Structures are given as C-alpha cells and as structure tokens.
Amino acid sequence: MDIKKCKQPGDNHSYHQLQSELFGFTFAPPQYSRDRILMANNMSLYYDPNHPTWCEYPDWFAVVGLSESLVDLPRKQGYYTWQEGRRPAMVMEFLPSRDESAKQPSSPQQPTAWEVYEQILGIPFYVIFDYTTNSLQLFKLLGDRYQKQELNNNQFWFPGLDLGLGLWSGEYQGLKRFWLRWYDSRGHWIPLPEELPSDTSASVSVEDSQPSQTPSKLGQHLQQLGIVTHKI
C-alpha cells in the first residue's frame, strides 16, 4: 500500500510562524469562546479513516464550535476529522510553501490537497496568500465546488464568523511588511496584546492603536503603493 507520510513539524520560515502567531491573537469570532476554538499550524490534518496515514498539512487552519468533550482531546499526532466530528471552518496556505513536495500526493490513488478540502472534507473556505507578492485569493465552497470570491480592497467578510480578513501594513515581532489580519464588524483590526491599553477595563479602538489601520484606510494605502485589488 502506498503511504504518504505527513511532514513533521520542524523549523519554519519566519514568516509562516509569525503569521500564524498573529492569527492566534486576532482570530476572535465573537459568538465562540476561546475554549471552543482550535487554531493550528504545524499540525497534520487527517481526513480518511480507511487510509489513516493520509493527511494534508495546511499552513494554518481553524475549527470553531468544539464541544466540551473535545476541548482536551490529545492532538500531538494531528487532527483526525473522523474522531473530532468537526471539520475546519477554513484552511490557509502561505506561498511559496516551506516544502513544495509536501503538497503533492505520493501516489495516484491519493487525492490532491484541493480535492481533500473541496470534495472530501467540504471545508467552507480555502485561502491562499502569496506573501512575496501580497496576492490574496479566497475560495468559497458553493455546492460541492470552490468558487473564487471577489475581494474588496483585499478584504473579505465572513458572515458566519462575524469577522473580516484583510491585508494590514505594520510591524510584528520586528518584521515590517503586509500581514493577513482579522477585523471586527466596526471595521477595526482585532488588537494585538501590545496594542491593548494597560487599563484593560478601558474601551479599545484599533484605530487608536499604532501602527494599525482600519481596512478602509488600508485600501487607500494599497492604491497609493500601486497595489491593485485582486478581482478573484
């Protein structure tokens, strides 16, 4: 039997790791408490109980609405969808990949990552971001096929999560560039810990947190830099 061995966690490109950390701080769907959300990078995603060694390795994925009985389930070896009983709400790939060979099936019988996300698991959203060109593509599952979505100033709103995703220009952990970042229903970036005031009882507006920009301001900034909004 042909067996694909999932790549084990190892040394990551600095961007992949930092982007995942930034997601961890800013992915906050208001209708889900933090203990009902799983965010993962460097985690194998297993999808077929008949082929329990087959897996994909998305750069980042999120599962929302975990039941109390699943919160403390050991996941050192990966996320087994048939055991968990809940598929990811989205998967993301950061290009160029850390290991392009890990994205390719090892045998003709094994489906591609696209087929796994689209047809086997039926993951609602598939996001691809090329951080070398700041090109963002987003695919939404409609029926049984992914369809490219049109982005507005490189932003997209997820009604089911009550969150938006967009490009943020700023510095994180000493690296200044464009990052993917989540924003709320008011159009404010979800704050990072260092952007929160020392008085945690005070109200927080990301507009007042530097170097944050609201998504609408970011769209103007992108145009000034000559970055064209991608019509997907």
N- and C-termini, Cα separation: 39 Å
Q: What are the low-pLDDT stretches, counting only 5+ consecutive residues below 50?
A: 1-5, 8-12, 200-212, 217-232
Question: Could you say what the CATH architecture is?
Answer: Alpha-Beta Complex
- The rounded Rg comes to 18 Å
Number of domains: 1
Which CATH C-level class is it?
A: Alpha Beta
Average per-residue pLDDT, rounded, comes to 80
Pfam family, one: Uma2
Protein name: Putative restriction endonuclease domain-containing protein
Domain Putative restriction endonuclease: 33-158
Structure, briefly:
17% of the residues lie in helices and 27% in strands. The protein has 232 residues and is of the alpha+beta class.
Secondary-structure map:
Elements: H1 14-26, E1 37-40, E2 45-46, E3 55-56, E4 60-64, H2 68-71, E5 79-80, H3 81-84, E6 90-95, H4 113-120, E7 125-130, E8 135-142, E9 145-148, E10 155-158, E11 163-172, E12 175-183, H5 215-224
